[in-house]
RNA sequence: GUGGUCGUAGCUCAGCUGGUAGAGCACCGGGUUGUGGUCCCGGGGGUCGCGGGUUCGAGUCCCGUCGAUCACCCCA
């Protein structure tokens, strides 16, 4: 019986997921991020310490617990909060700036939907420093993600970037003090439309119609180059924080333009990740899958981790692996060339010959070729079907009476003499191939 | 967590106003004592998500529950 929100995928899908994990890991390491795994549980105080009360946290309890135990534990709902805790706890042993990646499951008790689960996998990178963190790390995040995704057969990714300093500074310069509330209302723009947003701005934060219109004008700005800066300036609002934010956002956009044209777009209505983000925020959509929302997001957090009066600012971004794959699987947008890793099935003429066939399979494996011996000495037709149903490309036939062995490509039907100590399949056939559509 | 829609064989679905289940594909066997995918013949398989209620009788009506999905919330 399935449990809502806790998906269990079949081997082909798991193979695809593992390929994504491999790609993420390899790319993260290319950029110098070090591997880390933190425990699955944190004290609830840690999980809720940054105003994350809205997140549905799963609590952990023992079956034999007498009553409510002190020091209640909860499963982590992201990888950033546990990481911040880890950094403060181990600050003395780490070298800063500290770059690490974590690919782990996280849990949230929200209502499941397609691409939204209660247990899901995230692939996360973060950089944390002591005191202050250089801004160029904010520009690196989208590049790493672009690198991961461009190496996978998934639709093109579009990373939307904004900077909370721009919004906050703008609203403040405009004379609206409740910047958080304004942000929250603006964030609903796509859902409730400009008119409703305007009404709420007037009603909830006491904005004048002109102020509300100006906020909407800001949210409307979007560009793949630095032209958004002028567009903002034209709105005639000035504030030091706004200037700072614009400069930062410009650096992210220009760096991306230089290294990966088309990957990043400045989108001034992006406001999510309100919780602990203080500057840059990222959100990612796959082309053609915009309606499913973001599959990768993150941002800059300057105040998440502190020890005494020392702070550890950071910036990070996280790929929702389960979310992305769940969405693509749902649209049949990903496929794998076979349902098992096996490249060669060694046919078994008689059960007495199993030992010989095992040796043949062993010779193939020793050279890195995934091979298995047929389950029973059924008719060869059945043994070929065994391979065919699984998408296994080759069947190996032991030669009789001293005749040489042969190997058959069951897709083409071509069958040639072969030596298990030397034969190699084409590189493309060695392992299952993931493809998109 | 709130609300809506949906839930019949492995898959896609049919089953009129309630009278105790069907098709195609898939699967298994045979035709083809051993190199498959075509074709022909035959076969297995469903407590109609689960539980309760109304009724002489429920897949078909009502309630609950579980699951999927959509919107809200929130976010990967």
TrEMBL record:
<comment type="similarity">
    <text>Belongs to the class-II aminoacyl-tRNA synthetase family.</text>
</comment>
<dbReference type="InterPro" id="IPR036621">
    <property type="entry name" value="Anticodon-bd_dom_sf"/>
</dbReference>
<dbReference type="Pfam" id="PF03129">
    <property type="entry name" value="HGTP_anticodon"/>
</dbReference>
<dbReference type="InterPro" id="IPR004154">
    <property type="entry name" value="Anticodon-bd"/>
</dbReference>
<dbReference type="GO" id="GO:0016874">
    <property type="term" value="F:ligase activity"/>
</dbReference>
<dbReference type="InterPro" id="IPR045864">
    <property type="entry name" value="aa-tRNA-synth_II/BPL/LPL"/>
</dbReference>
<feature type="domain" description="Aminoacyl-transfer RNA synthetases class-II family profile">
    <location>
        <begin position="16"/>
        <end position="341"/>
    </location>
</feature>
<dbReference type="InterPro" id="IPR006195">
    <property type="entry name" value="aa-tRNA-synth_II"/>
</dbReference>
<comment type="subunit">
    <text>Homodimer.</text>
</comment>
<keyword id="KW-0648">Protein biosynthesis</keyword>
<keyword id="KW-0030">Aminoacyl-tRNA synthetase</keyword>
<dbReference type="InterPro" id="IPR015807">
    <property type="entry name" value="His-tRNA-ligase"/>
</dbReference>
<keyword id="KW-0067">ATP-binding</keyword>
<keyword id="KW-0547">Nucleotide-binding</keyword>
<dbReference type="InterPro" id="IPR041715">
    <property type="entry name" value="HisRS-like_core"/>
</dbReference>
<keyword id="KW-0436">Ligase</keyword>
<keyword id="KW-0963">Cytoplasm</keyword>
<protein>
    <recommendedName>
        <fullName>Histidine--tRNA ligase</fullName>
        <ecNumber>6.1.1.21</ecNumber>
    </recommendedName>
</protein>
<dbReference type="Pfam" id="PF13393">
    <property type="entry name" value="tRNA-synt_His"/>
</dbReference>
<dbReference type="InterPro" id="IPR004516">
    <property type="entry name" value="HisRS/HisZ"/>
</dbReference>
């Amino acid at each position: 019986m399935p449990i809502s929100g806790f998906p269990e995928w079949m081997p082909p899908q798991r193979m695809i997921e593992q390929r994504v994990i491999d790609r993420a890991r390899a790319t993260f390491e290319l950029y110098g991020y070090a591997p880390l795994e933190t425990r699955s549980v944190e004290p609830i105080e840690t999980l809720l310490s940054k105003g994350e009360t809205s997140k549905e946290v799963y609590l952990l309890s023992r079956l034999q617990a007498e009553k409510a135990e002190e020091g209640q534990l909860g499963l982590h709902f992201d990888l950033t909060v546990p990481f911040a805790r880890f950094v403060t706890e181990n600050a003395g042993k780490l070298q800063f700036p500290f770059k690490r990646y974590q690919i782990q499951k996280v849990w949230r008790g929200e209502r499941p939907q397609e691409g939204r689960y209660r247990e899901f996998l995230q692939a996360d990178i973060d950089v944390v420093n002591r005191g202050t963190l250089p801004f160029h790390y904010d520009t690196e995040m989208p590049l790493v993600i672009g690198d991961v995704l461009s190496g996978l057969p998934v639709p093109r990714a579009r990373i939307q970037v904004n900077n909370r300093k721009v919004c906050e500074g703008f609203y403040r310069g405009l004379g609206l003090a409740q910047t958080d509330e304004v942000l929250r209302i603006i964030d609903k723009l796509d859902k409730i439309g400009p008119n409703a947003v305007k009404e709420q701005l007037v009603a909830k934060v006491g904005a004048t119609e002109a102020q509300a219109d100006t906020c909407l004008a800001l949210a409307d700005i979007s560009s793949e180059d630095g032209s958004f800066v002028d567009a903002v300036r034209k709105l005639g609002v000035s504030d030091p924080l706004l200037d700072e934010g614009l400069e930062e956002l410009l650096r992210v956009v220009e760096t991306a333009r230089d290294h990966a044209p088309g990957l990043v777009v400045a989108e001034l209505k992006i406001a999510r990740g309100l919780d602990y983000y203080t500057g840059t925020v990222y959100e990612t959509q796959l082309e053609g899958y915009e309606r499913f929302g973001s599959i990768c997001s993150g941002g800059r957090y300057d105040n998440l981790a502190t020890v005494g009066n020392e702070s550890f600012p950071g910036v990070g971004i996280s790929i929702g692996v389960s979310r992305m794959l769940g969405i693509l699987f749902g649209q049949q947008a990903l496929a794998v060339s076979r349902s098992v890793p096996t490249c060669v099935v060694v046919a078994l003429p008689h059960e007495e010959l199993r030992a010989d066939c095992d040796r043949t399979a062993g010779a193939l494996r020793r050279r890195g070729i995934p091979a298995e011996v047929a389950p029973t000495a059924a008719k060869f037709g059945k043994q070929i079907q065994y391979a065919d149903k699984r998408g296994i490309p080759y069947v190996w036939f032991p030669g009789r009476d001293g005749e040489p062995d042969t190997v058959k490509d069951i897709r083409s039907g071509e069958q040639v003499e072969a030596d298990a100590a030397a034969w190699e399949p084409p590189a493309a056939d060695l392992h299952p191939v993931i493809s998109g559509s």
